[in-house]
Amino acid sequence: MTKYLEIDHVGITFPTDNGPLTVLDGVNLKLDQGEFVSLIGHSGCGKSTVLNIVAGLLQATEGGVILEGKEVDEPGPDRAVVFQHHSLMPWLSVYDNVRLAVDQVFKKSKSKDERHEWTLHNLELVHMSHALDRKPDEISGGMKQRVGIARALAMEPKVLLMDEPFGALDSLTRTHMQDSLMEIQTRLNNTVIMITHDVDEAVLLSDRIVMMTNGPNAKVGEILDIDLPRPRDRLALAENPTYNHYRAEVVRFLHERHLQKTQKDDEDNDNDPSEPAEPVVRLVS
Amino acid sequence: MNHATTLTPSPIYERLNKLMAAFSPQKLAKSLLVPFVAILAFLMLWSVGASQVQTSLGVFPGPEKVWEQTKALWAEYQEERVKEAAFYERLQKRIDKAVAAGKPEEKIERLKNRKYTGKETFIDQIFTSLGTVATGFLLASLIAIPLGILIGMNHMLYAAFNPIIQLLKPISPLAWLPLVTMVVSAVYVSNDPLFSKSFLTSAITVTLCCLWPTIINTAVGVAGVDKDLINVSRVLRLGWLTKTVKIILPSSIPMMFTGLRLSLSIGWMVLIAAEMLAQNPGLGKFVWDEFQNGSSNSLARIMVAVIAIGAIGFLLDRSMLWLQKAVSWDKNAILR
């Protein structure tokens, strides 16, 4: 049975000064259309690498990614990316940033007026219509991220890829952004892969949470189905035992990995002092 | 759902506030009074110090002497303009007379083509210098910006050009000048030259010296485009040209203008030396001629030129800074 998006035995090896480093080793994941999947794992486990391979920004050395039966081998607007650091053009206004993408993707299929309308529509979707002429420097971090999401949505992607989209925001803004994202997701039913460090965010937003093992040679550790009815309300869920159970499951997984990692680091340090420094271990909040 | 909206005062109100703040008594004292006192102190030190220095051309000129010569140079300029007007008036009369007498067409034409050939005054020389530096600088920018972009975009080109640029960058204009002079003399042969050789030699020497900061800074700006922005362009599948025009160029504009500004100030310094040696009738030649002249007024006249060179250099730099601020998207950068 073929799924909408298949990540099939994906592995990637980078050449380094200390010999080849296998970051991912046989990552398997299948997504249905309209599914919201979160990737969670410790820093440096290769979550971003998975996302970049799906985006086509990196080439897998083994296996591949198949979207609607076609292999992905280069970046394209059908897999729009929302970057952690908004990555808006600082010299373009909010409107022009989205318009740049709209013009590029729909230069043949939409007329000028239609592209204008489509740009406005997508900014409306993220509640940014009031700041069309502002430059990215003149708006807050949360607003920049909204524009980044509008730009990605405006490409009408088959898959929306989000790399810790709210990681750089304060927690209050983050909650607002999560609510916005859920609202948009209900309306558009996008297929989404989101990387996150935030357990609550993962449980609240996802249909499935994919927990990755520690790198190098990272693979999919466990997959947790989040069977909570939508629309979800964060206040009501705070008291919900199922929600708290899921939350505890993710925390348990991450904590076990954390212990393994520390143990492994200690052993490695005893045996081989020349081992390259591991990425910083950060316990998720 | 408007939680992300922040309340901001209207732009007009903001501007008015800024304007009011700029004219507050404390601000005025700080921005006008302090520099004024400093300049006064400097003039006094100069006056006292200069009177202690005896040269073969008399006492080193103090501010009063320099001011006197400034007025004299201005008077010379005006006198020359009066002479010029008188010349053209006489010429017009001769032309009218010739026309009335039914003289042949070609003779009248020859009269009409006569130009006033009076002596170059200080003011004329300033304009010659400005024209020469502008030519050299524009020529350098036309070469340096495209080259900088290419070098910044391509690692191979960068590796190829970098050692050459680093080697050529520190060369003094005085070392280039003899070579440029010989090459211009050999290559630019014309019976009816559009430009004088001294002008070309000076302008090209300026070009050679102000290529490098623009090339280097443009290349650094282009190479340093945020990787995320490049990724955005890859996701959007922007073509090479669109990517360059829409992302790489705007992104590197602040660095490019930093380079241009450095280039212009170097160019202006180089120009004075080049004009001295190439005898291009600008400020450099003025200084050299006064030095050779050796009259009792020479030192004061050179000081006038020195101050003019400083003032013009300052104005050129300020206008580049203004331009840099106008085109730079990075409004947070502190430019001074």
- Choose one word for the global shape of chain B: globular
CATH superfamily of the domain at 1-69 and 195-285 in chain A: P-loop containing nucleotide triphosphate hydrolases
Point out poorly predicted stretches of chain A: 271-285
Helices and strands of chain A, in order, run as: EEEHEEEHHHEHEHEEHH
Relative helix content of chain B: over 70%
Task: Report, as a whole number of angstroms, the end-to-end distance of chain B.
Answer: 42 Å
Q: Give the number of helices of chain B.
A: 12
Uncertain residue segments of chain B: 1-6
Kindly state the number of beta strands of chain B: 2
Verbal overview:
The complex is a heterodimer of chains A (285) and B (336). With 285 residues, chain A is an alpha/beta fold. Chain A has a domain at 1-69 and 195-285: P-loop containing nucleotide triphosphate hydrolases (Rossmann fold). Chain A has helices spanning 47-55, 94-105, 112-125, 141-154, 171-188, 199-205, 234-238, 241-271, and strands at 5-16, 19-31, 36-40, 62-67, 70-71, 79-82, 159-163, 191-195, 208-212, 220-225. Chain A starts with a strand and ends in a 14-residue tail after the last helix. The model of chain A is unreliable at 271-285 (pLDDT under 50). Chain B has two domains: 66-119; 121-327, MetI-like fold (Orthogonal Bundle), CATH 1.10.3720.10. Helix content of chain B is 78%, strand content 1%. Chain B has twelve helices and two strands. In chain B, a hairpin with a 2-residue loop joins strand 1 (54-55) and strand 2.
